[in-house]
Amino acid sequence: MSRLAYSTVTDKAHLQQRIMANLPVQASWVDSENGKIILVDGLTENLGENSALVNLEILPPVGSHVTLRIFDEEKTIIEVSTEVIRVERDPSKPLAALSVLENLKKWKLNALTAAQNWVTRHWQLNYEEEWVN
Fold first, then answer.
1. How far apart are CA 129 and CA 62, in angstroms?
2. Domain boundaries, the chain
3. How far is residue 50's CA from residue 104's CA, in Å, rounded to a whole number?
4. CA angle, 107 then 109 then 115, to 5°
5. Rounded to two decimals, what is the model's pTM?
6. Scanning 16, 45, 52, 133, which has the fewest C-beta atoms within 10 Å of its C-beta?
7. Predicted confidence (pLDDT) per residue in 14-51, tens digit
């Protein structure tokens, strides 16, 4: 007769929180070919505990260091150094995945809080009246 063992897994991978929010950003990096600074405005697709997925018209090369500024109502929320870990060259929606390199506590406090506030405002503006009985 076989027995079933019930056990808990203690080495579970921590699932990182991602917040789907469209906050305005400004990304800047140094062009490796001519040494000029490239400055591009865009929007976040989502923010994670140590990363951001941003929609930019001009994509930085994978592996490059990018200074990312996130805004809320034209006020800078945070400015951090990031590294490009992936790009998606879809002409309709070019995306860069950025990994935050420093100030993770400040990132979690400021950027994730701003993203949560954006979601709350978006929900209130677009859906609250539809669900009120």
1. 43
2. 18-119
3. 6
4. 80
5. 0.81
6. 133
7. 556 899 999 999 999 999 889 999 999 999 999 999 99
